[in-house]
Structure formats: C-alpha cells, structure tokens
TrEMBL record:
Residues annotated as domain Nitroreductase: 149-203
Keywords, comma-separated and alphabetical: Flavoprotein, FMN, Oxidoreductase
Gene3D superfamilies linked to this entry: NADH Oxidase (3.40.109.10)
Protein name: Nitroreductase family protein
Length: 324
C-alpha cells in the first residue's frame, strides 16, 4: 500500500514540475530571455509566410499583419544573438516581393517590404522563401543514403489521386522499423481518404487553412497510454509516437509520396472532438496529423518552403560546454 501511495505522489510531483518549468521558461514567461524568445518568434512568423508561398493557390496580398510584425521585430532584434532569423526573414520577404511583382500585384505592404530589403541589403545573406530544385526533379526513390535523408521536404501541393490500401499498408509497414521503448509499439496510424472527414479533421487541426482543400489523404498518429506506467514515463508516448511519425515521413519520401506533418497544439476539448470524428479510443493521446499524397502530375507546379536549417554551430554542443 505504501509503495502504491508513493507512486501516486510521484504523479503530482513530476507533472507539477513539468507545469512549473514550462510556465517559468516558455516564451511568454517574464523571466524568459527576450532575445531568445524573439529569435524563435521571428522564425515562426517567417515560416508562416513561407507556407503561404508554398501552397498551390497562393492568395495575393496574404500575411500583411505578419509582415508588419516581422519588420518591427527586426528593428528590435539583436543580430549578434544569431543571424539566422534575419537571414530567413529577408529571404522570405524577397520571395514574397518577387511573387507579387510577377503577378503585377500592387499594395502598400510591398513598398514596406522593399524598404526593409534595401535597409538590410548586404548586411546578411538571404536564406528563406521557396526551395529551388535542380532539373529534372528527382524524388526520394531516386536517392539513397544521406542524399535521401537530406532531400526530404514538406509539400502542401498534391494531386487529387487517393492512395491505394496496398500503398498505405506499405508506408506503415516501413515506418514500423522506428525504434520503440522496450519494443512496446504502442503507436497507431489512422488513415483517411474520405474527403468530408478529412475536411472536418483539418478544420479542428486549424493549421492547414491554406491548403486543406487540396488534401485527399490524411494520417492521424496516436499512442496508447495503456503501454506506459508510472509518472516517469509520462512523456514516452509522445517520444515513441514522434519517432514513428518521422519514420512514416521518410517512408513516404522513399516511395515518392509527398507529405506534410501537421502539429496538434490543441486544447483537451479539441482533442476530444478529433477523437470523436476519427473514432479514436479515449485511452490514446494524439501525436500529429500527416497530410500525404502523390505529387502533382505537372511536377513543375510543386512549390516547397525552403525551411532553412539553423547553423550546426548553434545546436551542436561538445562535452556539455556552454555556448558563449
């Protein structure tokens, strides 16, 4: 009885620690480093513009509020903290300006974009916007080893073709090679090709508004809580589920299926709604959705956000040495 009581207390202690740590160090905390929070905020808002440029039907003049925010954020950001957000923003603003110039779209926001680009001209390199592919474009099945891994990208442009049951089973079978703690394999993959159900699920996900009408195939990844026990394993369903999801993304890429992971940063209420629509059991936690599909028949219409990666020097730490 004492042993069970001790385990019960651990739930309050460890989950309480999680809550306090997040409240203390997340970006909206008053004690969070302002430049560090701004570093990530600029990246996040810039990527929203990249996504808008990478959908099949880019809406002229989109994202004005985000552009105004980014221009103001750049004036407050100290580039000495890291040039990457500035490079990404300026590259994306250049792509935004070029797109609207090509379609002869006029708006005051473009004047602000042009002025910002001129202000920062030659200060940093451009590293955002859309990815450039070498012609002829080679998809994953034509690549091996590290070239396969480095060439994966997220696509928001698909053909209307639905994947066959055999194709879906093959993708999941390959993804099952993902590691799983103690080989639990508690991850589940729900697949949908019913257009009405996909629209309903994506409306609850709420992050695919610019291209949800183009999605004809959708995965919902979950993890069963019954595979885990004790407060110490509270995060493992998400770790296992994320490993499986990444393996599924590479499985798609290796089989010339384009894909886009969709986060589920949602409330409990929305999670319950998704479970109801998808017929997911209550003892499962939601990991993510993944939009998948065949690439467009005219491969030249494929548009992909550049999604530039941070310098390795910013994320690699040798022997626990603190970055200066």
């Amino acid at each position: 009885m004492l042993k069970k009581l001790n385990k019960f207390v651990w739930f309050f202690t460890l989950f309480g620690g999680d809550r306090w740590r997040y409240i203390k160090y997340c970006s909206i905390s008053p004690v969070c480093d302002k430049q560090k929070a701004l570093y990530y905020k600029i990246i996040i808002e810039t990527h929203s513009l990249e996504k808008g440029l990478s959908v099949a039907h880019t809406r002229p003049g989109f994202g004005k509020s985000k552009i105004n925010y980014l221009i103001d954020a750049l004036s407050k950001y100290d580039v000495a903290f890291g040039a990457f957000p500035v490079e990404k923003t300026l590259g994306t603003l250049q792509a935004y300006y070029d797109f609207h110039t090509q379609i002869n779209f006029e708006d005051k926001i473009l004047d602000k974009v042009s002025q910002t680009l001129k202000k920062h001209e030659k200060k940093v390199s451009l590293n955002g916007g859309l990815r450039e592919f070498e012609a002829p474009l080679k998809l994953g099945s034509q690549k091996v080893g590290s070239d396969l891994l480095k060439s994966r990208f997220s696509s928001r442009v698909y053909s209307e073709e639905k994947l066959t049951e055999q194709e879906v089973e093959n993708l999941v079978r390959i993804a099952q090679q993902a590691p799983s703690q103690c080989n639990r394999q508690a991850t589940k993959a729900y697949f949908f090709n019913d257009i009405n159900k996909i629209r309903e699920l994506l409306s609850l996900q709420a992050g695919a508004g610019g291209f949800n009408q183009d999605v004809s195939n959708l995965f919902l990844i979950t993890s069963e809580l019954s595979a885990w026990g004790g407060a110490q394993q509270r995060n493992q369903p998400y770790v296992d589920g994320a490993l499986f999801s990444m393996a599924l993304l590479y499985s798609c890429h290796a089989n010339d299926i384009v894909s886009c992971p969709l986060n589920l940063a949602i409330t409990h209420k929305t999670s319950d709604q998704i479970k109801k629509v998808a017929n997911v059991n209550k003892d499962e936690v939601l990991i993510m959705m993944i939009a998948v599909g065949k690439p467009p028949k005219d491969i030249l219409t494929l548009k992909v956000a550049k999604s530039a990666r941070r310098p390795v020097s910013e994320i690699l730490v040798f022997n626990g040495a603190k970055n200066e």
